[in-house]
Design goal:
about 110 residues, alpha+beta, Histidine-containing Protein, Chain: A, two-stranded antiparallel sheet, 2 helices, 5 strands
């Protein structure tokens, strides 16, 4: 139940319960978050979401399953973070063994 802070009577500050419905503005249910994460992953052309399972508990999204390349693993996590109401993302997606990591151009990190 959300509480409001009232600075009266000064200097004793009091907290009291919020009136009306106790669902705070902006807080979303786990089923709403899970549905939105599934929609975002399904509509992103950069992610193959066929093997991705999603669990949400308390706004914490857990991605499980297998993706073909490392870039899709990163993109799926970024897509999950874009959904409103997500508090944390646990990326438990796996990439098949032997899949090469993306090539990194180290010359861009240390310019001469």
């Amino acid at each position: 139940m959300p509480l409001y802070w009232v600075p009266y009577p000064y200097p004793h500050y009091h907290y009291f319960p919020a009136p009306g419905p106790y669902r705070r503005h902006g807080v979303r249910s786990d089923t709403e978050i899970m549905a939105d994460v599934a929609d975002v992953l399904a509509t992103d052309p950069r992610v193959d979401a066929g093997e991705i399972a999603i669990e949400v508990s308390g706004g914490i999204v857990t991605l499980m399953g297998t993706v073909p390349v490392f870039e899709q693993r990163q993109q799926a996590e970024e897509d999950a973070w874009r959904v409103p109401g997500v508090v944390a993302v646990h990326n438990n997606l796996t990439v098949p063994p032997g899949t090469p990591h993306p090539p990194y151009d180290l010359s861009t990190l240390w310019p001469e």
